[in-house]
Amino acid sequence: MDSSVHLDNTVMQFGDFTAIQKTDLTIQSGEFFSFLGPSGCGKTTILNMISGFIDPTQGDVKIGGKSMRGVPANKRPTSMIFQNLALFPLMTVAENIEFGLEVRGVSKSERKKASDRLLELVALEGSGTKKVSELSGGQKQRIAIARALAVEPQVLLLDEPLSALDLKLRQHMRTELKAIQRKTGITFIYITHDQGEALTMSDRVAVMSAGRIQQVADPITLYRDPQTSFVASFVGENNGVKGGVIESNSDLVVLDCGPLGKLAGRSQGSVNVGADATLFIRPEHFRLQAESGMYSLQATIDEVNFEGAYLTLNANTATHQALSIQLGTHQFSESLKKGAPVSLSYHEQDAIVIAGEGHV
Amino acid sequence: MFSQLKSRFGSGLAVGIIGMIAVWLIGLVILPQLLMVDYSFRPNLLPADIGGPKDAYSLTNYETLFSNKIHLAIFFKTIWSSVLVTSLTLMVSYPIAFYLAKVATPQKAALCLLLLIIPFWINEILRTFSWYIILAYKGPLNALLLGLGVVDRPVRFLSGDGGVLIGMVYAYILFMIFPIYNAIESLDTNQIKAARNLGAGWIRTHWRVVIPHAKPGIATGCIMTFMLAAGSYAVPALLGSPGSRWFTQIIYNWFFEGGDWNQGAAYAFLLLIICIGFIALVMRVFKVGLGDIAK
Ligand SMILES: Nc1ncnc2c1ncn2[C@@H]1O[C@H](COP(=O)(O)OP(=O)(O)OP(=O)(O)O)[C@@H](O)[C@H]1O
Ligand SMILES: [Mg+2]
């Protein structure tokens, strides 16, 4: 069955505030797709449009190729797991799970079978008669998933469902969600502002900022080749250094970074000679020993933190640019201490250059 | 309670406060009621006979109601009409309360609440009189209905049950709207969304999610409306007489026209007992406890 979701030139405005800028995006059938972005960037608004709680001001939402314009929320093949779960507190666990089936007129015995099967799927066999208030946070979570799956949706919408859980449970639930997605083959649309969550679970991620989708890519591409400076600094940690472009050939760009000297990196998109650009280097790409062909930055160590397997350094350049560096613990030496000078080298292939002033 | 008050106000003031509350409760609430209970079991005698051999306790005053067919009919009509008023008020109030709590923007809700409350700044008698004018045989409502061609002859709303029902629904609507509004307000909007999302239409969403949540509010509203309706005097007197008599009017007559306080007290207690019975019934039906209602 085709359970793709297509945001067809969708715009969402509240009054004269545009919550979602014009977006054209297709989420494949059976894909685990995440929207990642800071609070207030419009993630929930996108889910609300897909599930039919609000109608886009312009454009259309298509599910399985069919336009959803005018289809009310209760007639859409979607099912949502809410940011706060929204289980029905006055019903038992089984009644919660069976609610969607009851609505569809499924007989009591069929409903019971379905809820037993789903309780087994979420590893909560025999909790059907419990009250919602008797469940732990993680159990509620799983009941919310079971309830949403009971109606056999084509598309499951998850609005930061793990945000209320503690770290350990969150990691556990990530694997479970992923397993459920594999088992059911349903399209998962997952919302989070936690990049770790988005990167570990998704087939593809859309990074959003202020109502605009910045980049859609698989997690590795997103990390290695961010297309905009927002993505570069939002996904993972990054050091941005501004400069003027003095050389740009095929995919290599050289920047004049004033007192920091000339620095080079791979270009992302078009970068023109004479324009301003930002060079991004990830903390783990710095080396203490320069090899031939490497570029170097001079800095003064501000802080050294030992984190077990690795060390993190905070350093400042002569231009008061703060840098963060991650080194393997074996590289530790007595000379790495507060106030000491340090030379930081990197391979040009490990840095990227994005046009514009960027924001870091 | 005393220790709390003492720690806040000191012992002198605490004793004073408790004392005043006690005087108020005992002197102005409990004793007069006990006096009425006492009255209701004694015959109505001339001052000279009080304390004499004829002054004995009996159930005679209570039996009067059951031997008087007309009074009994009015009694049951009052109860039945109050039930009707309560259900009509509920039907009118629930959609308004839901709209105010979940649909309207905060500004609109504030405006609507204000519009609902403003008429209640006016005295109840005056408000009822305004309905008297609206519902009059040659009044504006009939003029409107005639003008629209809904009826071809004016309707006689007054001096019958219709006028009383309309007047009472209007008089007590706030007592119904506010508890329900409060209850629905506290419902997480995502619950409604979740029900919709799982495929429920509006009726089922209300039936399974909103109403169960609002039950304590609905019960509170029903109890208040019923009590006020059953104990109402002004509305039936103004909008119903002479066609529709209310039991309160009979009680009034015993006290102030018949001069038989003992008989009046017995009637009043019968009404009270039925009302308490009704509350108990409503609480049973809605499966709510006193604690839920006090919320
Ligand atoms: N019904 C509405 N009316 C007006 N503005 C709204 C409405 N719903 C959302 N917004 C605005 O749209 C923007 C995006 O909101 P949205 O709830 O989609 O954010 P989000 O990305 O889900 O944030 P969070 O991570 O905090 O949940 C916000 O600025 C919000 O104020
Ligand atoms: Mg949100």
TrEMBL record, chain B:
<feature type="transmembrane region" description="Helical">
    <location>
        <begin position="113"/>
        <end position="134"/>
    </location>
</feature>
<feature type="transmembrane region" description="Helical">
    <location>
        <begin position="264"/>
        <end position="286"/>
    </location>
</feature>
<dbReference type="Pfam" id="PF00528">
    <property type="entry name" value="BPD_transp_1"/>
</dbReference>
<keyword id="KW-1003">Cell membrane</keyword>
<keyword id="KW-1133">Transmembrane helix</keyword>
<feature type="transmembrane region" description="Helical">
    <location>
        <begin position="79"/>
        <end position="101"/>
    </location>
</feature>
<dbReference type="InterPro" id="IPR035906">
    <property type="entry name" value="MetI-like_sf"/>
</dbReference>
<feature type="transmembrane region" description="Helical">
    <location>
        <begin position="12"/>
        <end position="35"/>
    </location>
</feature>
<feature type="transmembrane region" description="Helical">
    <location>
        <begin position="218"/>
        <end position="239"/>
    </location>
</feature>
<keyword id="KW-0812">Transmembrane</keyword>
<comment type="similarity">
    <text>Belongs to the binding-protein-dependent transport system permease family. CysTW subfamily.</text>
</comment>
<feature type="transmembrane region" description="Helical">
    <location>
        <begin position="164"/>
        <end position="184"/>
    </location>
</feature>
<dbReference type="InterPro" id="IPR000515">
    <property type="entry name" value="MetI-like"/>
</dbReference>
<feature type="domain" description="ABC transmembrane type-1">
    <location>
        <begin position="75"/>
        <end position="282"/>
    </location>
</feature>
<keyword id="KW-0813">Transport</keyword>
<keyword id="KW-0472">Membrane</keyword>
<protein>
    <submittedName>
        <fullName>Spermidine/putrescine ABC transporter permease</fullName>
    </submittedName>
</protein>
